[in-house]
């Protein structure tokens, strides 16, 4: 059987360059590689609601924003099925059965959920849906029999949870219905978790440290010029630090050797630039201008494509609706197999009927 991709994002804001290098860019490459039989990309609105129950309008608005960002990056509805999680009721049904295969203490050990509970001040009152979202994520993945899940490293615990559910289900019901998925992480370490422009560990909307895919050129430039570098690099002649220097982390994530030929021909590659910075004599502004040139080049076509799609919002919704129809059909097929395996297909089970008739024969 061919390899199948499923991945997705919570629609809680526009997508930023952290999403882009961490996952989106790779997804487009995978989509175009021809190595995958099917590609499913899910806008995880139901999961977004697990910690935004009091703000449904935010989720509702951002379903479209995320869809536009997807299309802008080059996800192509002809090659990938792009759909909205809440429109696939089979996912809830699967979750319901998987819940019986997972213990509360197992969920409590999930490090990603743990840190999210802290970030959201949920300690005193965790919504049940939020607590259990790793189980629902297992449904998202298994409903499509995904073999490959390209995501950021923070999703590793969800994949581990999914694999456990798959193994347990297949063992209990003596079946091979469910497929154990693998995580696919970006190869470039700098892309695993791109820090915010303020140097904080994560790019996040609430910290106001994001560069969005849809940002205008002057906004991008200003965000780069204000970026956190090495606070001790005061004079140009001072030796500078690369570690924890956000501008260099972004260069690690974005810069190619050709960019030097194009924008900074005094250096052959990033190693030379870093060495000069560490020696002293290289100013932050020069490095930031270089990063700006690279990012502007990368983001311009994305922003322009987004503007094209923005002109016809109705067809973006239509594209999502069509994607939901395809996804629903696939998920329904898996759910059917799951119910068969669980033997809760009472009305299709002739053997069961005969068995019960015999039982009550006198
Ligand atoms: N948890 C993912 C995120 O926060 C979104 C998501 C939901 C997902 N279901 C998924 C990702 C299934 C991969 C596979 O971005």
Automatic annotation (TrEMBL):
CDD domains, per database record: TrpRS_core
Reaction catalysed by this enzyme: tRNA(Trp) + L-tryptophan + ATP = L-tryptophyl-tRNA(Trp) + AMP + diphosphate + H(+)
Domain of life: Bacteria
UniProt GO BP: tryptophanyl-tRNA aminoacylation
Keywords assigned: Aminoacyl-tRNA synthetase, ATP-binding, Ligase, Nucleotide-binding, Protein biosynthesis
PROSITE patterns assigned: AA_TRNA_LIGASE_I
Pfam families noted in UniProt: tRNA-synt_1b
Keyword Transmembrane: no
Entry coiled-coil feature ranges: none
EC number(s) reported in the record: 6.1.1.2
Cellular component aspect of the GO annotation: cytosol
Any one Gene Ontology molecular-function term assigned to this protein's record: tryptophan-tRNA ligase activity
NCBIfam families membership: trpS
Family the UniProt entry places it in: Belongs to the class-I aminoacyl-tRNA synthetase family.
PANTHER family: TRYPTOPHAN--TRNA LIGASE, MITOCHONDRIAL
Stated name of the protein: Tryptophan--tRNA ligase
Native source organism of the sequence: Megamonas hypermegale
